[in-house]
Amino acid sequence: MPTTFLDVMLAQVGDARGLRQLQRASAVAFVTVLTSAAAQVSIPLPFTPVPFTFQPMVVLLGATVLGSRLGAASQVVYLALGIAGVPVFAASPLLPQGVSRLMGPTGGYLMAYPIAAFVAGLLAERGFYRRYFTAVVAMLFGLGIVFAGGVTWLALGMTSSWSAALAAGLYPFILADCAKIFVAAAVMPALWRFIVSPGLRQ
To answer: Other C-beta atoms within 10 Å of 136: how many?
Structure first.
């Protein structure tokens, strides 16, 4: 049986294997583009070097659609484009686009995206995206990984202590990001109920 929303939609293509592969690649590319676009909605905060963006929500929502491997792949492609110098990272007055961005204060968050996407996608493959509560759980797991990567990076290389890292990289964002998750998690159950054919539901 199909395990992700994307699988369910592609199952309706039938046996056109080449077409399904093309659509999977297109879906990965689309989530990569959405992640890049979300980075451009960046709000710098005066008390932390980490800007406010909508990227975590896009990363996790994309993963619930694509599943573990494709969700992680979309973020690996995103990072590869950024490392190559394509201007996909959030604007920064301190660091240019390119590999040096991964060495900056947001590097831990960025490098955590593929892992967070994989975990959220893995839970989606187990049906977590079909109900609101479990969709929230899946996305909160992924968000926890993003914050763990970001705060650890800040603590080990950017600040003098874990308390400073938490003050710069977690506390200013946790409530807003959780609120975004509570909103975004409603998307997949709604799609499952109203778009997916009832005959494909489990």
So the answer is: 17
- Which value, to the nearest 10 degrees, does the dihedral of the CA atoms of residues 49, 55, 59, 61 take? 140
Q: Could you tell me which of 19, 102, 92 has the C-alpha nearest to residue 49?
A: 92
- The helix (H) or strand (E) run that includes residue 165 is helix 162-169
Q: H/E element holding 44?
A: strand 43-45
What confidence score (pLDDT) does residue 62 get?
94
Q: What is the pLDDT of residue 201?
A: 47
Identify the pLDDT of residue 109.
96
Q: Which of 91, 113, 100 is nearest to 32 (CA)?
A: 113
pTM here is: 0.90
Between CA 179 and CA 101 the distance in angstroms is 27
**In order along the chain (202 residues), what is the average pLDDT of each group of 10 residues?**
74 64 91 95 88 92 93 97 94 82 92 97 90 92 96 87 93 94 87 62 47
Tokens of 89: 């990272």
Q: List the domain boundaries for the chain.
A: 5-200
- Taken in order 154, 159, 161, 164, is the CA torsion positive or negative? negative
Residue 33 one-letter amino acid: V
Task: Collect all residues with Cβ–Cβ distance below 8 Å to 103 and sequence separation of at least 6.
Answer: 95
CATH top class, domain 5-200: mainly alpha
CA dist., res. 88 & res. 32, Å (int): 9
Q: C-alpha angle with apex 192: 201 to 110, nearest 5 degrees?
A: 125
